[in-house]
Design goal:
The protein contains three helices and eight strands. The chain has 148 residues and is α+β, with helices and mostly antiparallel strands. The relative contact order is 0.18.
Length: 148
Amino acid sequence: MKSNVNDRWRAVMLAALMSCAAGWAVASRSVELVDTGRMQLVALDQSVPMTAADVRRAIILGGQVRRWQAIGDQPGVVTLEIDNDRHRLAVDVAYDAQGFEIKYKSSTNLNFSDSGGRPTIHPTAVRWIGELATAIRKTALTPRSAQP
């Protein structure tokens, strides 16, 4: 009888340990989601200033380079989404003639959590947002004649 109690105790302790380990593994795959902040854009040719339409075009084309699709388009804001079958991330990209700002909108299967005003998300989402920002900046700096 005593070994049966010990076996149960070991099983309970093992289950508790595995539960903690699983929780830690999920938590370790989340990082703080920090807004990119406003990114200024400067035209290569200073004699031809950028317009809001130029920035909008750079957002859409830069997004396409990184497999983002425009799913919404309002004056001053383009909503982009990336979906790789298991994970989905949507962002709003606010823009004007001087620059843009990327803001988190929603996600699926990316461990998003917002507790206490400090949102966290899977590091992949942070990487995707960073790659999007870089692609937009590169596209905006590409001479308009070289853009499709």
